Amino acid sequence: MRLVAERTATLVCGISVDAVGHDTLEFAFDGDRRTDLDQVIATIDAAFERAIDIDGEPYRLDLALGGAATPAPHHDEVRLIEAAEQALAEAETNRRPVSRTVEAVADRIDALTLGRDLHLAIDRDELFLQYQPKLHLRRQSICSLEALIRWRHPDRGLVLPGDFIPIAEQSSDIGAMTLWTIRRVIADQRRLAALGHDLPIFVNIAGVLLSDTRFVRQACAMVEESGARLGFEVTETSVIRDPQSAIAHLKIFTDIGITVAIDDYGAGLSSLAYLKQLPARELKIDKLFVTHLTSSNRDPLIVRSTIDLAHAMEMEVVAEGVETQSALALLSVMGCDMAQGFLISRPVGLDALVTYLEEERHRAMPQDPRAAFGGLAQAWKRA
User: Fold this and answer.
1) Is the pTM of this model over 0.85?
2) SS3 breakdown of the chain: % helix, strand, coil, rounded to 5?
3) CATH match for 114-382 among 3.90.1300.10, 3.30.559.10, 3.40.50.300, 3.20.20.450
4) How many Cα atoms occupy the beta-carbon half-sphere of 169 within 13 Å?
5) Cα 43 to the chain's mean position, in Å?
6) Which percentage of the chain shows pLDDT scores above 70?
7) Contact between 143 and 338 (Cβ < 8 Å)
């Protein structure tokens, strides 16, 4: 162990080494960024791939490397050590290095404060919606919209969904927030229809709500009473939490005319066993695959096979994260039904959406997106 400690100390500048057991060493160091931890772990791992000399004999060491990092200004040393020990235990089980991030104490306090503020956000009228259009590739027309919730905090300004949605999901606020969204979408859809834009609008439904009987009953009552043309987007991983209850409630939604779409397909652990049971009419390919569609060898294969699979299951396909003409062209050739992304439109408020629809700004793109792509599109078409 002394030899391991001495060699490791020469690998990383400023690293401290302490023995905490007959077969365990603890290393500590300061870095400029979170990735420094992964780099140090990789360096130590590589340094002991070869046998080391002990009294003239070569010995190979079976190392388990686990580590944790935390922001320096507000770190809790006890929590940091506990996280590192948990990472080490996982590394021993999985036989691979493991690293974890420990959020700062200040961040946890901030999350608690944000949660209290979020509870009051609806009554204070701090929430608002933006809408992102979906373009039907064959018809070259806007066929539906996705409603995206936003929070304008009186002190913090615009709070991103990634910061407050997880907080809402851990509390009872997600139900009230989603019902507020449905209510606002119904009102906005009526206004759009009165202006000649009668489009279905999709609302994101958190996985925890799919097993909430009370929420399902309230949501269905609102939709049936209004006669609104709504769709609910759910992730496949959210169904896996409680598949029996989730699938039963999704069927209730479809029975009253709500269209179900599977969101972020491919981003999680996609399972055909659940996919075939879901009463979904749309499948949305995660932008992770669409972003690199024209620069990757594997992503086009994944996207095309997903499109074929969805069509075989009588679902339409939406590609998320479309940002370039070349990606749009290739998706069109592959038979993708709809596209959504910044190339078509960023999420916008209702007034801006009305202007967008009335001016038919989506028609500023080529009528036949395949014309912009040329040879590669033809190659995929022949394939």
Assistant:
1) no
2) 50, 20, 30
3) 3.20.20.450
4) 15
5) 31
6) 90
7) yes
